[in-house]
Amino acid sequence: MPWGRFCRRDRLLHRDYLDAGTEPAAIQTFTIGFTIEAYDEARYVKAVAARLGTDHTELYVTPSETLEVIPKLPAIYWRGLG
User: Residue 31's beta-bridge partner residues?
Assistant: First the structure.
């Protein structure tokens, strides 16, 4: 079964995955990008994923898609995040 890891600029793929003997190509990474360039950090994550050779996926969302999910957050995160 492949590993998956959500990546963002301040918390990129952790080296523990690679130290555990997992092949980079078996690691699936993904990130959410934004269509407004000032808020989009996906290009940095894409560069790291390419360097590590992971199976990387990006999902881009628009401002309206972002606003649509806000009312759903209590149901999505029914448990505390801490």
Answer: 58
The answer as to whether 29 is a domain residue is yes
Rounded CA gap, 2 and 11, in Å?
A: 20
Can you list the positions of beta strands (E) in 22-66? Answer: 27-34, 55-61
pLDDT tens digit string along 14-23?
A: 555 555 565 6
The closest of 32, 27, 26 to 58, measured between CA atoms, is 32
Distance CA 65, CA 75 (A): 17
How many domains in the chain?
1
| Model pLDDT for residues 19-52, shown as the tens digit of each residue | 556 565 667 888 899 999 998 989 998 998 898 8
